[in-house]
Specification:
The chain has 587 residues and is an alpha/beta fold. Helix content is 33%, strand content 23%. It contains 16 helices and 27 strands. The strands form six sheets. Strands 14, 15, 16, 17, 18, 19, 20, 21, 22, 23, 24 and 25 form a twelve-stranded antiparallel beta sheet that branches. The chain has a seven-stranded parallel beta sheet with strand order 3-2-1-4-5-6-11, sandwiched between helices.
Length: 587
């Protein structure tokens, strides 16, 4: 296990980087002036609220934490207009912080991944890594560009004077993603998402320029991947991180509108500047290092827009929260959170479930449970097998219960396989419930939500008797989304019956309905009446819990080695000269 220091850990790339580095099995120290709510809580993550403008803070950080590597994602946020009007706000902190971080990495022989910027390039059709120092940056990025160029130049100086080579310089294209500034002062994509969300069908949204400038956009999680891989493989190079695809501003806005499902038009304000006409990264070197993006532009946009809906959008449910927590349940219509333009895709996923379950019966097990009388002490009988896989096992269970004259509690089919073709199905439903679940339970975060979800099938006679669930302090709720087409239901039974605290409701299990049972403040009594008349009741069910940030401690079936192993490898760099401290006192 390595100890990784991540600066700018609350930022657009930083949050992804913290999560992905933890998942890789390393210990992370994250530094920023503010802690993002999106950062996870974990025993392998330490957040430090430090002002890195104070060089003593940086020096102490290296002395006390002794990191094996530094992922320097520090950057000053702001629009191009702010950069022109307040250039010192970009240059001064960047020069101070990057200088001291680079100095400490070189002094301590620590590997550094330095996150530079597309802004270092001069205007050109395509940006090639080796062209930077023979040109000057664009007037549109003049000040921010030098805040990154000087960091690159300083690394070259340490390499020349002290043979410090343990670094990668990455130059990402225009970054976008979930953890952007959506206040309207962030990147062009973040600002556009906000405008599109706030617009109503038929509205016009105003955009600067004429929409023809071309940009190379890269999703923040793909930048985080490139950083991690650069350190993992000790890439000693300057590498672009882009898509290599030119996307016009107009095309970008139109794609966001399409993802939103709204009908909007764009009004171009040609009195405002376009910026540089072209920005496209050469990905030849990036491809050679196997650092190409894993997400398409549209997929990255969709993930970002969905994040905005979850965290900044209104609750799509027609729900009164006070009434919900008083009753302990909510019964609603699926189209409250599935838009009209998404309905066909939703039905396609339902159809996949019907098809997969028909061809892969082995993926399901039968839950057949009975009530054991209190006087029974036989542990084998009390701890009976819950999941049955063959008809012979089911018949044997049935005969046993009849012989003992015991009560059957419940039985139905339940998906056991959570791999292969079932992964995108479950991911689809998880994504859709996240549109409202964070609004219902603020305690839930992106990093601590636990989805215990599955697909259930009830056939003739399958049921659950009236009951309350056992105590579970981490459970927030249970969500049930019914999947069987409404046209197939003709007195088929299988209704969810909720009756508690004087409230009563019945839910017909067809694809227009869903229900939420609250367990954070309640434990509602509920049951499923027996299915009849050959109706087949398909349900997506999710037991939503809270928990620590999940880190898989097993790799290829073996437990991770969680002992610290300092990075003393000098294969990719040489020891600095003995007189480093003496010669560098001027810094």
């Amino acid at each position: 296990m390595k100890k990784i220091l991540i600066t700018g850990c609350s930022g657009l790339v930083g949050v992804h980087l913290v999560k992905e580095t933890l998942q890789r099995g390393d210990y992370v120290i994250g530094v920023d002036i503010k802690k993002s709510d999106d950062l996870p809580e974990s025993k392998y993550f330490k957040f430090l609220n430090l002002d890195l403008m104070n060089e003593e803070n940086v020096k102490s950080l290296f002395e006390e934490e002794k990191p094996d590597a530094v992922f320097n994602c520090f950057g000053v946020k702001g629009s191009p207009m702010r950069a022109k009007q307040q250039p010192v706000d970009f240059l001064y902190p960047s020069f101070k912080i990057n200088t001291e971080i680079i100095h400490q990495c070189a002094k301590n022989n620590v590997w550094l991944v330095f996150l530079s910027s597309v802004g270092v390039y001069a205007p050109a059709e395509t940006f090639y890594e080796d062209d930077v120092w023979s040109t000057l940056p664009s007037e549109n990025d003049w000040f921010p560009s030098w805040s990154k160029r000087m960091g690159e130049l300083l690394l070259g100086a340490y390499k020349k004077q002290y043979s410090y080579k343990k670094f990668t310089i990455l130059r990402p294209a225009n970054i976008f993603g979930e953890y952007d500034d959506f206040s309207g002062n962030g990147t062009v994509i973040a600002s556009t998402i906000k405008k599109v969300y706030e617009a109503k069908d038929g509205d016009k949204i105003v955009a600067w320029g004429d929409g023809t400038p071309q940009r190379d956009f890269v999703y923040a999680k793909d930048v985080a991947f490139a950083i991690i891989e650069s350190y993992k493989r000790r890439i000693q190079d300057v590498v672009n991180v882009g898509s290599g695809e030119s996307i016009t501003i107009q095309s970008m806005i139109e794609t966001i509108i399409e993802i939103s499902g709204k009908k909007l038009t764009i009004e171009w304000d040609k009195t405002k500047p376009n910026g540089d006409r072209h920005r496209k990264m050469s990905t030849h070197r990036q491809n050679g290092h196997a650092l190409l993006p894993r997400h398409s532009f549209k997929e990255g946009l969709r993930l970002t827009y969905e994040y905005y809906l979850r965290h900044y959008g209104e609750n799509p449910l027609n729900i009164n929260l006070e009434e919900f927590f008083e009753k302990g349940f909510y019964v609603g219509k699926v189209k409250e959170f599935i838009r009209e333009d998404e309905w066909q895709k939703h039905q396609e996923f339902c159809q996949k479930i019907f098809e997969y379950s028909a061809k892969s019966e082995k993926d399901f097990a039968y839950r057949y449970e009975y009530r054991v009388p209190m006087e029974i002490e036989d542990e084998e009988i009390k701890n009976y097998k819950r999941n049955l896989y063959t008809q012979e096992e089911i018949e044997e269970r049935k005969r046993f219960i009849e012989e003992m004259d015991w009560d059957v509690v419940q039985h139905w089919w339940e998906l056991q396989s959570k791999s292969g073709e079932w992964i995108p199905v479950l991911d689809y439903f998880r994504e859709k419930i996240q549109r409202f679940i964070f609004k219902l339970y603020p305690i839930l975060k992106e990093w601590n939500i636990r989805n215990e979800d599955t697909i259930t099938i009830y056939k003739n006679g399958d049921f659950i008797e009236p009951h309350v669930d056992g105590e579970n302090p981490t459970r927030c709720c249970v969500i049930l989304i019914y999947l069987t087409p409404e046209k197939d239901y003709i007195d088929g039974g299988g209704k969810l019956i909720v009756q508690d605290k004087g409230y009563y409701d019945e839910v017909v299990p067809v694809d227009v309905n869903f229900a939420i049972l609250d367990f954070s403040k309640n434990n509602p009594n509920h049951a499923v009446e027996a299915v009849k008349n050959d109706f087949v009741r398909f349900t997506y069910i999710n037991f939503v819990n809270t928990g620590e940030f999940f880190i898989n401690d097993y790799v290829n079936g073996k437990q991770r080695d969680r002992t610290f192993k300092p990075d003393n490898d000098t294969t990719y760099g040489v020891e600095l000269k003995n007189n480093f401290e003496e010669n560098s006192k001027i810094i």
